[in-house]
Amino acid sequence: MKHKVKRLHTIWMDGGTRGEDFAHWIIDVFRWTVEVVLRPLEKKGFTLLPKPWVV
C-alpha cells in the first residue's frame, strides 16, 4: 500500500482514539507518522480541532 499512496506521510488521529497498537502498526509497517490531535483542555463539548480532516 505504501507504494500506491506515495504522498501520504502523516496520519492524524483524534483524541478519542486510543489505538496505540494501531499507531505502532502504522509506524512499523508503513513508516508513516501518526499524530494525535487533542481538543484544548479549556474547551468543553464539540470543538473544531486544529487539524482538519484531509482526504
Name some characteristics of this structure.
single chain; 55 residues; alpha+beta; two-stranded parallel ribbon; 1 helix; 2 strands
Concise summary:
By secondary structure, the protein is an alpha+beta fold. It has one helix spanning 20-30, and strands spanning 10-14, 33-37.
Word description of this protein:
With 55 residues, this protein is an alpha+beta fold. It is 20% helix and 18% strand. It is built from one helix and two strands; from the N terminus they run E-H-E. Strand 1, helix 1 (20-30) and strand 2 (33-37) form a beta-alpha-beta unit. The longest helix is centred in the middle third of the chain and has 11 residues, at 20-30. It starts with 9 loop residues before the first strand and ends in an 18-residue tail after the last strand.
